[in-house]
Amino acid sequence: MKIKRIFKTIGFYLLLTIIVLFISLPLINMVGSSFKSTREILNNNNIFPEVFTWENYRNVLNRTPFLTYVRNSVVVAVLTAVVVGITSCLAGYAIARYQRHIRAFRYFSKLFLILQMFPAVLLMIPLVLVFIKVGLSDSLLGISLIYIAFNIPFCTWMISGFFEGIPVEMEEAAQIDGCTVFQSFCKLAVPLSLPGIASIMIYAFIGAWNEYMMANVINKSAEVKTLPVGLQSFILQFDTDWGSLMAASVLAIIPAMLFIIFMQKYIVAGLTAGAVKG
Amino acid sequence: MRRKTVKKLFSVLLAGTMALSLAACGDGSGKDTEKAAVPETAAKEETEAAKTKASEDGDVVLEFWDMPWGSVAYQEAAQALVKRFNEEHPGITVNYTSVPWDGDYQTFNVAITSGNAPDVSTGSGYSPFQFDAMGEILPLDDLMEEMKADGSADFEETAMKQFVQNGHQVAMPWNLDPKCIYYRKDILEENNIPVPTTWDELLDACKQLSNGDFYGMAIESAGAWPLNIFLINNGVSFIDENKQAAFTSDGVKETLEYFRTLSEEKVIAPGSAGYTAAEAQKLFLQGKAAFIPTSADFANSIKDQGEEFYNNVELLAPLTAPSGTSLSIMGCNGIMAYQQTEHPDEAKMFIRWWLENSDTLWTEGGMGAFPALRTKYTLDVFTQDKFKAALIEKVLPVSVPLNYPSENAFPAMNSIQGELLTSQACSMVLGTDKPVEDIMNEINDKVITILDSFGTGEE
Q1: N or C: which end of chain B has fewer CB within 10 A?
Q2: What residue ranges are annotated as transmembrane (chain A) (predicted)?
Q3: B193-226 pLDDT tens trace
Q4: Of the candidates B72, B114, B177, which has its C-beta nearest A129's C-beta?
Q5: Which DSSP helix (H) or strand (E) runs through B160?
């Protein structure tokens, strides 16, 4: 019986390992290719290099403003995540707690979902016009404001679900003990909703990290380009510098991976806990 | 009752938003639509005023947007060249920006319609025509006349005529991007196969060589340049000399049927219907294919494979097609100036300087495309390279752009190329059993729609 269980466990983890390796194959191939010369990338199908080389990384780090792109993406993504986290929490709490008293709030969060249907591409020209007039074009602040504005509606809707899951009676008890509404929000609601807050911050971070079109249109100078736009410099009209692109891509995912590894314990809980109410 | 009213209002609002969201899915076609999208004069004037960024010394500042015509080395060379221009021209400062290919049309379109166009840019072949239709391109007639007058307009003849719309020069020819067929001469010699000169000979060679994992030809469908190479070689294209849809011609049928034969005879890889250029090129570089119709700058990858491989690959002279023609296809890309520029004279001066002084983009930048100015063909980088020399000798003189047989391009070509119609045709021919006539009619209908939407550019 015990042996059977052991075999079952081994089999289960073996299967999981195979599935994970299969899903991760493109990533593994990317890492392997980053250590190959472009010649070797094109003339064989091996995942790992026959001749190991750091040339691609040297090319990317020494001959391109790659670290500038990383810095810009980190600044924009972190700023977006923090501002969206704070703003959405405040708005989501208000919607969750006051929808019983203010009927309009019941539909307000649904309006956020309607906003998600609006194609962002229609906003490109008006945004560029406005940003030029206020002096925000070609700047990290400008693109951060766009990402913050785009992410707040969905994140507010998401976090309001988490706040609804916290019993009102707990906060009422805290208020009876002397807490103000803001204090019960900060000391009770926020700590209990940390999984949700982490989820929305990760969502906003990844959205800002990966976004290409707005960053490409709004920011032109090399000093303010973000990573997704910077990676495009290796893609030519009819050719691609594969070695440099693979190396740059490996470097590009490191900050996002570190962020997600750090926050991962909150992700799964965050994705499911908000769906449970009462 | 009140709840029902609110629900009704909510439903109407939701439906209205969904309807509005479909606006982004429209074909955005028609000159009127494009003109309506342009914000009117007040915004442009304010933006132009803001754009006059004279320095304390009263320098003229030009914004130059360049495409990545090469990788890291090209961008270094281009920035160095701009720096050299700035040093040689005190009083004019050019700011260099590299615009990624992905989303380039949106980038330029948004910049132009928001009044934030650069002063000068390079760009893909048909973009100046589309922007000219929006009234945004600065005509360069005087620049071309000036260069003709002093004998320096030594452009490839086809390129010279390409960038003319309604009698105006909408861009100066900047570079040429020919397509060709590379082949493994060692494999042909080993199998006693003569170098093919016609389509039938090519098919025979491929049939003799195809065996298991080895294929006669490596073909990609995603970009579909191989099909374009054979269509133009056969003297046909999407349009006729009157710029009317012509994808149902006998020559097109002949070409599509040839491609279907390649598939039926199994001389191409089974996945060719979905192959990208990189996948087809990889097949060739791994020694699994004998012929590859592709972009000329694939020569760089061939060289990367080492001396032995490089010596075993040659460039095929344009074949004699069933129609009797021996044409080849090339992309013509231009350098253009915009109406929004505050400094048109300086912009034109910079364009001329860039055309005439850009040797380092090839000698140091490794640019894959060819200069439109023939005087540059004497550079060692062309004469000492067997592929480049062969392209100059055998391919460029018979190369025409995709808008052949029309002498000049026009706005609709931007969409014909951008909609990847050749790719669709190639995928259907290689990957399905759909009758060739049906494929031709389907693609032709799309060409007609595009031509009706965008017109032929003639006022």
Answers
A1: N
A2: 12-32, 74-96, 108-132, 144-163, 184-206, 242-262
A3: 999 999 999 999 999 999 988 999 999 998 779 9
A4: B114
A5: helix B157-162
Say if residue B45 is in the same domain as residue B188. no
pLDDT at B41 over 50: no
CATH number at residue B254: 3.40.190.10
Cα distances from A237 to residues B101, B274, B277, B333, in angstroms, run 7, 19, 11, 11
Joined together, the tokens standing for residue B419 give: 């909609």
CA distance A270 to chain B (A): 29
Chain A interface includes B248 (CB < 8 A) = no
pTM of the model: 0.83
At B244-294, the pLDDT tens digits run 999 999 999 999 999 999 999 999 999 999 999 999 999 999 999 999 999
- Chain B contact probe: residue of A99, A102, A132 with most B CBs at under 10 A: A132
SS3 state at B60: strand
Phi, psi of B346 (to 5 degrees): -65, -35
**For residue A252, is it left (φ>0), alpha (ψ between -120 and 50) or beta?**
alpha
Q: Name which of A225, A236, A244, A246 to mutate to probe chain B: the one with the most chain B Cβ atoms within 10 A of its Cβ.
A: A236
Reported CATH class of domain A65-273: mainly alpha
How far is the alpha carbon of A28 from chain B, nearest alpha carbon, in Å? 19
Q: Please tell me which residue, B305 or A264, carries the higher pLDDT value.
A: B305
At residue A157, what is the residue type?
W
What's the mean per-residue pLDDT of chain B? 87
